[in-house]
Amino acid sequence: MNKIELWQRFTKYLCICPEISLSLDISRMNFSDDFFAQMEPAMQHAFAAMSALEKGVIANPDEGRMVGHYWLRNPALAPTAELRREIDDTVTQVLDFSRRVHSGALATPAGERFRKFLVIGIGGSALGPQFVADALSCPQEPMKPYFLDNTDPDGMDRVFAGLGADLASTLTVVISKSGSTKETRNGMLEARAAYQGAGLDFARYAVAVTGAGSELDKVALAEGWIERFPMWDWVGGRTSVTSAVGLLPAALQGIDISALLKGAGACDSITRQTDTLKNPAALMALMWYYATNGRGEKDLVVLPYKDRLLLFSRYLQQLIMESLGKEQDLDGTVVCQGLSVYGNKGSTDQHAYVQQLREGVANFFVTFIEVLQDREGRSMQVEDGVTSGDFLSGFYQGTRTALYEKGRQSMTITVERVDAGTIGALIALFERTVGLYASLVNINAYHQPGVEAGKKAAGAVISLQKAVIEQLGKQPQGQTALEIATSLGKPEQAESVFAILRHLAANPDRGIQGSKNEHAELIQFSMS
């Protein structure tokens, strides 16, 4: 197409949503003129499925659960008065708690204000809060956030080293729906030990966000933690950022959670309409379908041209890939669906992987995110009449053009600024897109059997490790991994036994040593 034709295509398909200061440009996706007509019946079916979900149907048949993250931004949609009251009460509880902390009415045992807070969680209990925290941080925030989001001992040591003596003025928020998630439990135990090592009573610094009656809830109640906030089984981890999971950390940081909820709610309203060309979530879902043939055949590259959106692609990886990566569809047919997501930020990527995007394997499509406002206040000129922000805008437009010239497809989300309302709108936009796309490809976006399988497999490894250590204690002489596995009656587990022993031997405090040999099958392990 020539530039006049591209301009005409741009104006024809540009979806402008002034209520949330957001627009979506799909003109650089190469769909045919009859694509929307062909997909309209399927799209209307997806709208109907979404409407039923919001009304409280059992949308997760595997677990018999409703899916209600949209109610969090509009409690009036919740199917019962009890649920509506719980949502409202939780937001009130979060706001009241954060005010008491910020004012010093709720203080440390020494009577000092809490100056920092530590969030312990994993997956949806960390990725959403981390994204919001980084996107909306400011120098004047009343409390600085830190995160334990893995069960990596060295990573935890780095966080506690960063807190240092400030641990005595640090509030800890432990987030786990079931309370049995091992990574979060381990982080809590490590945090408890760090507080105790500093002569501090952990319970008087701790807050829980968890399901009623969960293991974590019982611990928090028994030990007298400062406060407990609810998580509900109808909110999945990857869609929990507008629940207490994300709202409590954001409020403690000083972020306007009312504006975040308002932005998400406004986007929900826009993306609830059934006029496809006026619904940005429907348009994105259709572009995902078009770009990947409804089979996940290409990757989604997310390129936000704003440092504050650096963590957005990490957040979207879980939201999209955990929701859409499914072996079977709703009819039980093996389909192996999914959509791979990666990204970083512009213009950093122009010095990283844009070279491959333009000239390498064409196995992707791009979603650019453009932010119109450069900064609060005036910008200096780095050249006559040109600011750093002008260059950033130029790099975005140049990269978009360079990719299109090589037949690489893209769409662009444009927002006016990065603030709490915008972040809420972006979260809601992609949540809705995921739900609509899942309907288009006939899968359940709201369960995650693969994640549960991984947890069970990890538990089996830990059980095997305990048996291996016990077996080693019975034999003073060195043994190979195969000998130990055979002694346990599990010769087929020799590789797992070897991996366990090699890990234990690398940590002197575990009391196990391995001989030096370049052949894995000849290395002997023993108690040191």
What does this protein look like?
- This protein is an alpha/beta fold.
- It contains 17 helices and 15 strands.
- The strands form 4 sheets. It has a 6-stranded mixed sheet with strand order 1-2-13-10-8-9, with helices on both faces.
- The mean pLDDT is 96.
Please report the number of helical segments.
17
Mean pLDDT: 96
Strand order, biggest sheet? 1-2-13-10-8-9
Coarse shape: globular
Question: What key attributes describe this structure?
Answer:
globular, 15 strands, six-stranded mixed beta sheet, 46% helix, 13% strand, five-stranded parallel beta sheet, single chain, alpha/beta, 17 helices, 528 residues
Task: Please provide a brief summary of the model.
The chain is α/β, with parallel strands linked by helices.
